Amino acid sequence: MKQEPIEYDHEYDHEYDKDSKIDMLAMQLERQLTQVINDRTVIDSRMVEDLKNYHGKLDDETINALKKAKRSHPFIKLTRAKTNAGESQLVDLLFPNDDKNYGIKPTPKPDLAGQLDDETPVEIEGQQYQDDEGNQITQGDLAARKIEVAKERCENMELTIEDQLVETKYNSKCRKAIHDACVVGTGILKGPVVMGKLDKVYIEQGGNFTLELQESFTPGVEVVRPWDFFPDLSASEISEAEFVFERRYMSKQQVAELPQRKGFKADNVKRVLKMTSQQTQHTTSYQDDVRKLAGLSDTINDSRYETWEYHGPIDNDVLIDVGAIDLPEDEEQALAFIEEMSGEETMATVFYCGGLVLGARVHLMSYEGYMPYRVFNWEPDDSSIFGYGIPRMVRDEQGILNTTWRMMLDNGGITAGPQIGVNKKHIQPADGNWEITPFKQWNMVGQIDDIRKVFTTVEFNSHLNELQGVYQTARVLFDEVSGVPMLQQGEQGQSTQTLGGMSMLMNAANTVRRRQVKDWDDNITEPMISDFYHWNMSHNEDSAIKGDYQVDARGTSALLVKETQAQALTNFMSVAGSNPVFAPVLQLKAVDILREWVKTQGLPSSIIPTDEELEQYQKQQAEQSEGQEQDPAMAIEQLRMQQLQAKQEFDSQMFDKKAQLDTQEQQANIQIKYQQLAAEMQAQQSKERVELMKLTQNEKLSSEKLVVELKKVQAKNEQDWAKFTAELKVKQQAGITANYGLD
């Protein structure tokens, strides 16, 4: 659809004072806003089309044409499923459980690091100083203390920013911005913005308590919807934009309360309240389409006042007139200040409604090029601040799927049954109704004797198989073009079944996400946290958090390290915990290791006791084990005696073990010697018998003499054997050297 040119001057009945700088600023802003709205027509049209694809709705022209042709008009909502899958994965990577994706670290100072080894004494006004222990304070000690103080303040700054972001629900608003980026291509966060909070306080006065409302201010973050964001379209990124218009809606009561704030003109607020809400609205057909998709009425029935915030350079004279710049109380100094500031511009915020400037204020951040808006694109456009979302990337593929599916349904409906031809001249329905129904009676007319000559059926060809091939091809293209494959939606498809193969596939699927995570770090996290740091440095009264720091955006590192760290930590706990050498040492860090493991597994940190709970538990255990505190000297002596006793027990065990081994060795030697002597005796006896037999054969000895000699030999052998047996018993009982020196 083509957007018609917009003219708004005729909607305002009030007249502008040409001598009023504020009214002239209002006219300038109105012309500038009108031009921006007209220039953004193409982007508005694109966002509406993307929203319709996401919600699964065809445009009215297509639906009317299909209905007129009596064709089916379904919409397969694959775009919504793909968009939600990509959004969920990016959110899961950027915001891990119980952790933040940013950090604050002190700016490194090489001069301080080089002074750590400097032993030169510190002298202040010729006087040297010592610490509590009497040691001379050196330049190295002073440098180490400065580094320690910077680290402490840095940690305090990080905690302060974390509290501020938690209070403003930073993670929740980031998820909304990511949703906008996935659907229409662009997500916008605004911050830090000053958020006022009214606290009810009771103050005692004269014995009575009175209720007072005290307003406190803290930095926060807001989500800006893309269709309410009108930047300088000549810029390709937000840092290059000279100005930004932001549309905001307010009730009549909220507009009436604006003069209570500093910098708002009560007269102009009254002029706006005389107008109707419709007179303040810059309505477009695209805005109506967005509201209808959300189930709301169009802008004609919207009773809210349309207000605008302009962020850009404003002439100092206008800011002084509206009260955005404070003047010195002294009249001469005020005149000199006005003369000095005149003719220059300052980055400021102007509140604008119904063609009138309601108020203005100077930007909280004064550095050059500052804009409170941070923009993230799912798919960046090098020529525009606005990018492309998933619905825009798969627009053609979604159209192919819808068209193919309609063709399949239409072809299936036509080929579900035959086409019937009837010759009405020769047949009449019995009930007078020509509709074909089961068990219907037909009457033949004329000379027709066979009813089959009256009825004719024609079958049309089915093309479901060919259309199904086209549909499957479109599905594959849909996955490839979207950059969100089925693997990331939980469907494995034809991939390998092994754990290593799945890990490789997931790493490959995460390649595009890593690039987007880095873009989020560069465009959102780092500048946003840096702005919170600058805001606290300028406006926070706590001096314990102030210092020179750097922002460390950790989104990408958390993505790359998280899985590897989880696996490595699990292996470490398994290997080191089962090792008897490392297990006692690891007990000192058991709680810290367990906390890191729980964090890598994505489990809630509440399942691990806190340091206070552990300290209380250890204290209770100590009180139960000891009734009173033990003397340190006695504890040392007790430990020494335990070590000495353990050493004596070890020496005794080693001595007994050695004696046992010696005894076993002696017994083995005696047994061997016994066997050797027995063998020698048997050999000697055999030898003597052989000699006697030789003598007998030579007839040198008589048989009687031979018997006597044999008896002598036997007696001698028995004596030697008895002696050997007795010696063996003595050695077994008293040792191998028991009979040394005896016959």
Task: Explain the layout of strands and helices.
Layout: H1 21-39, H2 41-55, H3 60-68, H4 78-94, E1 102-106, H5 110-114, E2 123-124, E3 127-128, H6 139-167, H7 170-184, E4 186-205, E5 208-224, E6 229-231, E7 244-250, H8 252-256, H9 266-273, H10 285-293, E8 305-315, H11 316-322, H12 331-341, E9 345-353, E10 356-362, E11 373-377, E12 379-381, E13 384-388, H13 390-393, H14 395-414, E14 419-422, E15 427-429, E16 442-444, E17 455-458, H15 464-482, H16 499-509, H17 511-539, E18 549-553, H18 555-578, H19 583-586, H20 590-600, H21 611-625, H22 632-697, H23 703-734
Antiparallel strand pairs: 1-18, 2-3, 4-5, 4-11, 6-7, 7-8, 8-9, 9-10, 12-13, 14-17, 15-16
Helix pairs in contact: 2-10, 4-7, 4-17, 14-15, 17-18, 18-20, 22-23
In summary, what is this structure?
By secondary structure, the chain is of the alpha+beta class. Among the domains are: 11-55 and 242-370, no CATH class; 418-458, no CATH class; 589-626, no CATH class; 660-734.
**What's the total count of β strands?**
18
Beta-strand content bin: 15-25%
Oligomer: single chain
Rg, nearest Å: 48 Å
Q: Which strand order do you get reading across the main beta sheet?
A: 6-7-8-9-10
Rounded to the nearest angstrom, the distance between the terminal CA atoms is 133 Å
Described by the principal axes of the CA atoms, the overall outline is flat
Structural class: alpha+beta
Nearest-integer average pLDDT: 77
Q: Biggest sheet, open or closed, and with what strands and sense?
A: 5 strands, antiparallel
Helix content: 40-55%
Poorly predicted runs are 1-10, 490-506
Number of helices: 23
